[in-house]
Q: What sequence folds into this?
């Protein structure tokens, strides 16, 4: 299955999240273009965001500091 690379805002570690889970999260958010899908970092409990992800509604989310 395809995975999307996410990065933690806090510790900087990366994690690959299954595309299916990312899409599910996005649907729950209603596809807000300003709010990327987020998950909890398994290392530190911080927020992880996609480095690059094109969403189901056509928005592109990029990692920006
Ligand atoms: Zn972390």
A:
């Amino acid at each position: 299955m395809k995975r999307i690379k996410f990065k933690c805002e806090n510790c900087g570690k990366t994690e690959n999240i299954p595309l299916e889970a990312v899409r599910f999260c996005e649907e729950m958010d209603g596809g807000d273009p300003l709010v990327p899908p987020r998950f909890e970092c398994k290392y530190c409990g911080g927020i992880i965001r996609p480095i690059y992800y094109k969403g189901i509604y056509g928005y592109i989310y990029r990692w920006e500091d």
